[in-house]
């Protein structure tokens, strides 16, 4: 059976989730208290509904507990976001993903039972900071639990050396999980392969180790 999703809050963030789920051919109910916002999504979502999601009776009448996954994309109004999340969990929705505006908001959402809390603005800010701090860092993707994936251009010092010779795992506790070479992606590369200057290395590690690696290895070679 197809999964069914609900997106609550049709700002830029919630709206882009609805559009993408539609592209992926998923059933999605889009809810907002603003009629104008709901009208924008009436042709994109499977159902588009005007409702105040802080009203438990309204949520019950929508049969919200029968949906597989509800995404709370209300940001600015922290009270509406937390109350909506609380009602969803109390009604027994299995999976609730909520957008946090700041760390304090995230803490409350976790406490009241949100299954996943996302910080799109903070995460995008961090990705851009890593990218502007070093032209060699192409992307930075934060995972849960202080670990991240970073994509870097091979430096001149790395070129011609094998992964074993680079010794990054022993020195920094970071693993190279894939190498992008032209159009190819070498997943779980053989440690004997030699890195080429045009390679892009995809690495995973603890945030502190990645920061240490960026400071010591990636940035000095840019000078
Ligand atoms: P974004 O940053 O994603 O662009 P935004 O700044 O437009 O969002 P937010 O305050 O984050 O606005 O709210 C997103 C949407 O949530 C708005 O369209 C708002 O009408 C809706 N919303 C706020 N409170 C409720 C509520 N109680 N019930 C339903 N929808 C709500």
Can you describe what's shown?
By secondary structure, the protein is of the alpha/beta class. It folds into two domains: 5-118, Rossmann fold (3-Layer(aba) Sandwich); 123-218, Alpha-Beta Plaits. It has helices at residues 12-23, 35-40, 56-61, 78-90, 103-111, 120-133, 163-166, 168-172, 207-218; strands at residues 4-8, 27-32, 47-50, 69-72, 95-99, 116-118, 137-142, 147-153, 175-181, 184-187, 200-206. Strands 3-2-1-4-5-6 form a six-stranded parallel sheet, with helices on both faces. A five-stranded antiparallel sheet has the order 7-8-11-9-10. The longest helix has 14 residues, at 120-133. The relative contact order is 0.10. The model has no long low-confidence stretch (mean pLDDT 91). Adenosine-5'-triphosphate (ATP) binds next to helix 1 and strand 2. Adenosine-5'-triphosphate binds next to helix 1 and strand 2.
Short description:
With 223 residues, the chain is of the alpha/beta class.
Shape: elongated
Distance between the termini: 56 Å
Main pleated sheet: 6 strands, parallel
How many domains make up the coordinates?
2
CATH topology-level fold name of the largest domain = Rossmann fold
Question: Roughly how much helix do the residues carry, as a percent range?
Answer: 25-40%
CATH class of the largest domain: Alpha Beta
Label the CATH architecture of the largest domain: 3-Layer(aba) Sandwich
Structure ligands: adenosine-5'-triphosphate
What is the chain-wise order of helices and strands? EHEHEHEHEHEHEEHHEEEH
Give me the oligomer status.
Answer: single chain
- Give the helix tally: 9
For the secondary structure, the number of strands is 11
Taking all Cα atoms into account, the compactness measure Rg is 22 Å
Low-confidence stretches at least 5 residues in length (pLDDT < 50)?
Answer: none
Mean pLDDT, to the nearest integer, reads 91
Q: Largest sheet, order of strands side by side?
A: 3-2-1-4-5-6
GO molecular function: monoatomic cation transmembrane transporter activity
Domain RCK C-terminal: 135-219
Organism: Staphylococcus massiliensis S46
Protein name: K+ transport system NAD-binding component
